[in-house]
Amino acid sequence: MNHWIVVPIVLPALMAPFIVLAMRHDLLLQRVFSAVATVALLAVTLGLLGEAAGGPPLLYKLGNWIAPFGIVLVLDRLSALMILLTAILAVVVLVYAISSGWDARGRHFHALFQFQLMGISGAFLTGDVFNLFVFFEVLLIASYGLMLHGGGMARMKAGVQYVAVNLGGSTLFLFAVGTIYGITGTLNMADLAVKVPLVPEGDQALLRVGALLLLVVFSVKAALVPIHFWLPGTYANAPAPVAALFAIMTKVGAYAIIRVYTLAFGAEAGPDAWLAADWLLPAALVTLVVGLVGVLGAKALTRLVCFSVIGSMGTLLIAVAIFTPEATTAALFYLVHSTFAGAALFLIADLVTERRGSAGDRLVAAPRFAQSGLLAALFFLAAIGMAGMPPLTGFLGKLMVLDSARASDSMVTIWTVILVTSLLAMVGFARAGSLIFWKSSAIHGTEAGGTVIRPALPIAAAGAMLAGMVALTVFAGPVTEYLQATAAGLYDPVDYIHAVLGPEALAQR
Amino acid sequence: MEFLVASGVGAMTAAGVYLLLRARTFPVIVGLALLSYAVNLFLFATGRLVVDRPPVISPDALGYTDPLPQALVLTAIVISFGMTALIVVLALRAYLEAGSDAVDTAEGERPGSGNGGAP
Amino acid sequence: MTLAWIVLLPFIGALLPGLMIRAGRDACALTTGGVSLLALILLLTQAPAVFAGEVVQAKWIWLPALGLNVTFFVDGLGFFFAALILAIGLLIITYARYYLSKDDPMGQFYCYLLLFQGAMVGIVLSDNVLLLLVFWELTSLSSFLLIGYWKHLPEGRQGARMALAVTGMGGLSMIAGMLILGDIVGSYDLTVILQNRDLIQSSPGYLPALLLILGGCFTKSAQFPFHFWLPHAMAAPTPVSAYLHSATMVKAGIFLMARMWPVLAGTDAWFYIVATTGLTTMVIAAWIALFKDDLKGLLAHSTVSHLGLVTMLFGLGTPMAAVAGVFHILNHATFKCALFMTAGIVDHEAGTRDARRLGGLAALMPITATIATVAALSMAGLPLLNGFLSKEMMLEEAAHTAWAGNTWIFPALATLGALFSVAYSFRYVFHVFFGPQRDDYPHHPHDPPAGMYLPPAFLTVLVVLIGLLPALIAQPLVEVFAGAVVGGPLPEFHLAIWHGLTPALGMSALAVAGGAFLLWRHAAANRIRLSVPRPEAKVMFEATVEGCAALSHAVIDGLHNGSLRRYLAFFVTASIVVGGVAFMSGAHEAGLRPLTPAPVIPILGWLLLVGACAAIIFFHRNRLLTLIIVGVIGLVVSIAFIYLSAPDLALTQISVEVVTVILLLLALNFLPKETPRESAPLRRARDAVLAGVSGLGVGGLIYLVMTRDFTSISEYHLAQSKPGGGGTNVVNVILVDFRGFDTFGEIIVLGIAALAIFALLDGALHGPAAKSLSSWMPDQERARDRHPLMMVVATRVMLPLSLIVGVYIFLRGHNEPGGGFIAGLVVAIAFLMQYMASGFGWAERRMKIDYHAMIAWGVIIAGLTGAGAWLAGRPFLTSDFGYVKLPFLDKFEVATAIGFDLGVFLTVVGSVMLALANLSRLARRTEAPISDKPMDYRPVPEAPYKAEDAGTAGAAAREHG
Q1: Which of C712, C762, C875 sits opposite A60 (nearest CB)?
Q2: Alpha helices (runs of H) in C560-646, residue ranges in sequence order
Q3: Residue A451's pLDDT is what?
């Protein structure tokens, strides 16, 4: 058994208390250890990706109890990809948080950051529905801490809403899991995949209730309309690096949807096959529209970015909702892309905001500010990516989604919505950009914050996110190959089930 | 018995949801607390109802109730306790900052500057 | 390989200007020019192959999953356009060096220009249509930057945004078109697509694909009704206008029509859409151009008109028309680019480009005048100049084209267009360079430096040469280029000045005469124009965009109005709907599990519970009362747990209950004690409905679940608890062993909660929160004796007792109800009692416990116990157990899990204490300095304390804030 599989969870879980214990009052030490741990996490996840790419899913039996009775972690291509993505994002965000001094604006940033990573990794790795709930709670409560980091009235009030909505979500999660357990008598995902087809006819209705309520829970995380309302207020008020890190949080919801509804409610699930599709597709289409209309209508840069994130979740979930290997490949590609794009935009928005002084991030003409040329270039690239203009990943991802949508009955709708909203995005970003970066040069005023010496590292961090997009563009071929293998595994989960439950379970199936 | 438990869960849920939709932090918190009671009982009941058959192994036990939901509920109780504690303090802090405990904000009007922070 | 370099060079080169500008403007211009020149030379090396009729290809795999590969190929057509783009680019670069003023950032300019150049070359050399799309959109983006180059000019910004929006829109429709096309053919490679004419034209996808692709072409080439963006793009510096709107960007659409001609053209749909659009554009734009006083505006519209002409020619679908089209592209590029440059010169030297303020410049700037005149006459289509030749061919084709059976309308309109074109060309000459000299030119006009007039001069020479010796110079080129367009055998044709007395000759004679007359009567014509309504496209466009933006803003902020109540209402409704529909959509049968009898006690409890739930809804405004009712509900729930054989749950529930209520009380100390009645009756009704439905839903759901049998994995847990987990209390064994990982996560949640709470409260001691704290007045009369004697004594006696109880509960946990969590809460409560009874300061000083460390140790111990299994080569959290005998207590079975449970215990105590201790620390902030003696009695009045305390706290707040 490969003990490295549990390391992405245990490492931050131990680093965080260690930071609290040994260096609570020394920010420098906290920074060093936090950074070391995060880089180590990156290294480990890289290694795990190599492992996963090699062959069938790997099982880790916690407490050495056999599934489905104990809790298991499963490392397959999907989970490996997600934890690697998390680690990459974490390193960049941490660099930004440290170099911009965000981590000094409150207590316990680094401990909470490590716990946050632990929660996210756990959610991606676990193979047990209730354990997924636990890790959702870990990553949520850590995110509350991070989101509230630094204080301030607006942030506190937004925080109340964020917490309240997600507590509602957690409650619903328990209702759903309870129902599913009450019908199938199991909590293990692979075991669900085996037991769902065997559920007696008379229990179908209840099983569906449980399964679809679970979809609602995941949709809250994935910011699917009409339960996306928490996102703009939260992300706009969260500290910028935290908002950037949250780019992966919405993906946790998307991941959970992909995982559960291909494994347990996929082709084999008899009457419940592809249960999620009918609900997901329309909601995702609306989400895309709402998001991009928001981009056009936003009156502040950060808020604009928030809505662009909602829009990207729409595109992503459209692809998910088609439920074919090709579409899921596209979805995963778009997932990686939108994580980078979203994070980059939040960081850039923050860089702009703090330079514009009193104007803040409001979309109004203000005197030109320090390094506006450089930031304009970064924003231009990030916007291209998010709006899905070539040559960056957004365009490739969008093409893949459109291409895979051929398999859907509602292809015309999907194409229309995606293409029209792309236009909205183009116009929206162009308006914002020309207002902030171009019109400023027409305004003769004192250069806001021109005299302050700015650290270069935060800009480098934002640049690193863009570099990630460029790399993803250049190596789109190999990446897609990996994703195709991933999707293939999801749509033929025999290996997964075999790895978790052994051959006899397959025989039952 | 089943009916009593079910209707009890229902009643707590209803009360919880109603308070959840109020305009001030305190009732919202109480509502969430009620919902967590409801969901704990719900989760527990998914193991079906059994009278005096505690899941403690002993030779002369006639049988046991389903222990798994109980364990799940224990975890759930602890977690919801942590969550409640957090949101209570958060509500308190928000009240101290804003001077009001209303839950609604003027989101669109005053967009978060992203770094409006205290010290 | 060479092909790829031709495309890549400009992109790579785009990095240079930004650097070279440090070495001066000349160095910058030279490097930029060098890059284009190199690319051009590389292209010319391909010439022999191309003229031998070969097709040179280069291929790299990029995204095979999508069929998107980096494949280039060059044939006659591609070569023609690439050469045009690079050659004219070279001239533009030279010209711009002298055009741009000192304070224009030249580095940026050349950077954008090269990006644009690369994108254009990419379009014309791509073999893969998806790759073509990439470059297509890149031209939109780079032209956006070029047009908006003068950022300070609002026209520049608007023009740029408009161009991006319109061409970008076209690009999007083209994406769809290309995807359909690729779907029909089964490949995205042009070379393959071009082989499948019949397959494509017979497929049902043909028409949609055609429309969508043409959408892209028409927007890019500013065809009616998308023509409006181009004139406004003229806000850009003249070199940009000259480049984008004579030779390149607007030609991209034309290029694509030419490229796709073999497979898309030849159908009625093609003829009626393309030819009609082209003709309309040609006439309308020419008419508008005639009255543009801004020279660049005039040229812009004339460009649109000529693009319409070419479009119309391709639209006819006959090979001969295609030949004419290709030939006119060549000619138009030469004379129009020259004209733009002269316009720029006039603007630069005379200080204005308004035709009404100019005139008589011929004497002042003879060279410019000559160049402009020759080029303009060619545009007018006068003999001996290249414009004449292609216009003749155009009229010849138009002459025998029937439109919907009508034989005269097409030639008539074509002649009309030519007539207007003559008129505005003449106007460009006479109203600017001839007529009386004036004395009110903004600057003193004179010929520019050679660097500025040589490029247009060179082009004008071409204009004349081609005009004089078409057969010698143009014929071979056109044959190759047009051959590539038609993709088959070309009809026999001779480029010559004299074709005899053809109808075309008559038509163009008519056009020239009419044009001259129209210019003579220009004022009168203008009156006519002013009398007819003229929709101003720009205004409409801006209005539309702003309207959409305003609308979206209204919609979005109306929707996301920051009302948590609305958000949660949506959430609840969504859950209800999804749950309900899900239930309806599945088969359902009632369960067969026998019901459990309900004796009196539970019924009483049930009544109490339901009553309490009802009460809390009605009395929730009284917050203290609410808390009491919550307590009651919690109590009933715990009793229910006991009754239903869940002792552990009962213990946990009750102890959590206590701590929660204490916490809420401490918080309520600061919060208002009443909730105002805010919601309107209607909203309350809505909420009541939502609440009722969710209650029914959840209750019904659990009822249905409880009333049916099922088999659970927990059989295994019951069986394995003792032999495998070493404990008889299965719940506890599950918690610390079977599902210990859940517990690990759970205590971490607690720990995080405590840390976050600490951060929150710590923050509250600074900034605005602190101010409101220090000015905070207790809204209730306080008890006189802060620490009642009875309570103090009682709690201090109880402390050791409760600690022992805690330890006992902890140790027995594995076998009997109990365990680390409950023990932790019991101990925590015992400590809390001390705080409450004897006061914060007193307790603080006697219990020197670092709760941070306690939490940290808890998590670490739990984690390390789990990791300990690694040493035995077993997975995380694998437990082992043996027996120990503790004195005075019975035999204990000690599992390694107990270490884990210890972690749980510590974390719980630490978390609870950290949270509550800090909360009371906050409370303390608001109060008078306490005499830390226990059982102190606070004398009245308290006012002086308050005042001074407020003062100090205020100061503290200031130094922190």
Answers
A1: C875
A2: 564-585, 600-619, 623-643
A3: 55
Reported as type and span, the H/E element at residue A449 is none
Which residues lie below 8 Å from residue C316, measured CB to CB, with a gap of 6+? C271, C275, C397, C401
Beta strand C68-74 with C56-63 is antiparallel
Q: What is d(CA A382, CA C932) in angstroms, rounded to the nearest whole number?
A: 60
Q: Tokens in use for A492? A: 């033929």
**Residue C440 has what pLDDT?**
81
Residue A73 pLDDT > 50: yes
Q: How far is residue C480's CA from residue C495's CA, in Å, rounded to a whole number? A: 14
| C-alpha span between C671 and A439 (Å, rounded) | 47
Helix locations, C55-105, DSSP H: 76-99
d(CA C563, CA A229): 9
Give the closest residue to C645 by CA, choosing from C901, C817, C826.
C817
Model confidence at A486, in pLDDT bands (50, 70, 90)?
very high
What is the rounded average pLDDT of the residues A261-273? Answer: 90
Q: Any idea of the CA torsion for C398, C400, C403, C407, to the nearest 10 degrees?
A: 120
Q: Which residues of C touch B50 (CB under 8 A)?
A: 596, 644-645
- Rg of chain C, C-alpha, whole Å: 43
Say if CB C209 and CB C175 are below 8 A apart.
no
**In angstroms, what separates the C-alpha of A298 from chain C's closest C-alpha?**
6
| C941 pLDDT higher than 60 | no
- Output the pLDDT for position B115: 39
Token readout for C378 is 């060619």
Nearest chain B residue to A233 by CA distance is B107
- CB contacts < 8 A (B, C): 337
Q: Report d(CA A160, CA C698) in Å as an integer.
A: 26
Q: What is the rounded CA–CA span in Å between residue C238 and residue B43? A: 73
Contacts of C558 (CB under 8 A, 6+ apart): none
Q: Please tell me the distance in Å from C877's CA to the nearest CA on chain A.
A: 4
Chain A with chain B: Cβ pairs closer than 8 A: 154
Task: Write out chain A residues lying below 8 Å of B93, CB-based.
Answer: 151, 156
C228 vs A344, more confident? A344
For residue C699, the one-letter residue type is G
C chain contacts of residue A178, beta-carbon cutoff 8 Å = 702, 705
Question: Which residue from A141, A154, A299 is facing B82, i.e. has the nearest CB?
Answer: A141
| Contacts of C208 by beta carbon, 8 Å cutoff, 6+ apart | C176, C177, C180
Give every CB contact of residue C731 below 8 A, 6+ residues apart in sequence: B55, B67, B70, B71, B74, C646, C648, C817
CB contacts under 8 A, B 13-52 vs C, are 13-30, 33-34, 37-38, 40-42, 44-52
pLDDT tens-place string over residues A382-427: 999 999 998 899 999 999 999 999 988 999 999 999 999 999 999 9
Buried-state track C112-124, b at ≥16 Cβ within 10 A, e below 16: bbbbbbbbbbbbb
| Percentage of the residues of chain A whose pLDDT score is greater than 70 | 97
**Contact of C299 with C222, CB cutoff 8 Å:** no
Distance CA C340, CA C888 (A): 105
Look up tokens 């733009």; give the residue.
Answer: C340
- Six-digit token string for C687: 């909420």
Q: How far apart are CA A141 and CA A156, in angstroms?
A: 15
- Closest chain A C-alpha to C128 CA, distance in angstroms: 14
Cβ(B97)–Cβ(B89) under 8 Å? no
Question: Are residues C852 and A187, on separate chains, in Cβ contact within 8 Å?
Answer: no
| 3-state class (DSSP) for residue C173 | helix
C379: Cβ contacts below 8 Å, ≥ 6 apart: C302, C306, C335, C336, C339, C387, C421, C425, C428
